[in-house]
Amino acid sequence: MSIGDMAKASHNAETGFEVELYVYDLSKGLARRITPMLLGKQLPGVWHTSIVVRGREYFFGSTGIDCCRAGKTILEEPDQVISLGRSELPYSVFLAYIDELAESSYKGSTYNLLRHNCNNFSQDVAMFLTGKSIPREILELPDEFLRTPLGNTLIPLFENLSVAVDKAPDHGSGSGRAPRDSSRPDHRSERTSTSPDRSDRQRPRAAYKRAEERTSESAEGGSDEESEDQPGTTRHPKRGSDTQPILYPRIDGVAALKELERHLERVITDRERSALTQLRDYLVKGHGAFALGQQQFDLFDKVLTHRDGSPAVRLMLLRVLQAVALVKDVVLFLHQDRKNHCIMSYVYRIAKLPSDEQDEVLKLLCNLCKHTSSCDWLLYASEWNEELSGLLCSNAKATIHAVVHGLLCGRRLAGELSAALVFNLSAREVFEDTATELTAAIIQYLEGEVEEEQAYRCFTALHRFLRCRYNDVSALIKTLGPHLQKFSGASQRVKKLVDEVGQKVSASVRRH
């Protein structure tokens, strides 16, 4: 298996998983039998639902969010199993999302049998993971129930059925929680190194940090003690002082958002105004991406694709997004852009944008590299249809297209920003064809007049790609040989990188 295939297999294992909805009738058929007599109409069941991912069952009740092995709650086997499709999200992002919900909108204290229950939880998680809703008849049952003459009278009965799920004994343990798989930790500790017998729920911020660290370490291919020249391995540099991403953080997101609202005041609806308010709250708080969603992306799509849209409005939105990109849990927001892929579709059209918009797009992409999860999001290979062109696209294609255009368009600022972006991206796991395409663009860029800082960023990227033993990268860099001489008088750090790149290319040639 080639290194490229290994990288793709690793990527698929991290991002791809099936999502199922387990449906239980808490009344065990009783509701169907007695409701015609008591209510004057038949209710099919008293539904309890849960989401199943990777053999784990996640559900919400009066004690909050919990999980166990699929089908191992007190309810045993579900009455129905409904496939919701496949999610392309990283598993660590899903776990972080669950922790966010557990500490906010789905605390145990927020539970309400009719208005905020397990089915609402299943709906929110299903929409986040796949964009698909759970069956409407499950969601609409409470309203249908309350419209009946005796509906309120029977509420205590159904509350007792619901509590039975939450308070079910753990196979005689007396814990009062749904049974767990003793061989695996629950969702709160699956990505931590805490002791298995620790029962307190992890804070979402800390849990998310550990999730990112685990994902980063997995992608980076081992510890620093491993030999970087070990055959057949793919290594990626850990983020030290010299590998921190290059960012453009000097942007006041709240001020930019206020200016955006001023520009849009007369043309947006109340729903769109509310979407901007939610976005402002997110920027002020610095977390809570789960509260954002399609309403923001619908507005972004309107601003970025409307033929008669104002360039000033697009620029202001891009600056807002640059600030949003720096927030730790931004990836939870980004993953909800599944309808039109409006942000990455806009990035893909970079060559057709005015130069000032191109520059703001490149700054946005650089800022999205601040966090491991959002940087990886830029490199997702799952394809989708780009609406305006009708072509198949992906986040990775759009990102690479932006880098290549910026490096080769001949504008000094665009080259500077793209050199920063390729520096950032090269610190992450990339497929071999991605590394090859970026290398080709870097080589062409280095053939021109390049300042020391940009040379350093580009040679750093080449050096990182060579550490991954991508054969095509070595062959391409060899063509740069005649142009390497001009960098011999550069700074010490550039000269060192040039020498190391030359040595690695020579070693690669000898091996083949």
UniProtKB/TrEMBL annotation:
Residues 168-247 are annotated as: Disordered. Pfam families: Peptidase_C97. This is PPPDE domain-containing protein. Belongs to the DeSI family. Signal peptide: none annotated. Residues 17-159 form the PPPDE domain. GO terms for biological process: protein modification by small protein removal; proteolysis. It comes from Amblyomma americanum (Lone star tick). GO terms for molecular function: peptidase activity. Keywords: Hydrolase, Protease. Gene3D superfamilies: Leucine-rich Repeat Variant, PPPDE domains. Residues 178-217 have a biased composition (Basic and acidic residues). It comes from the Eukaryota.
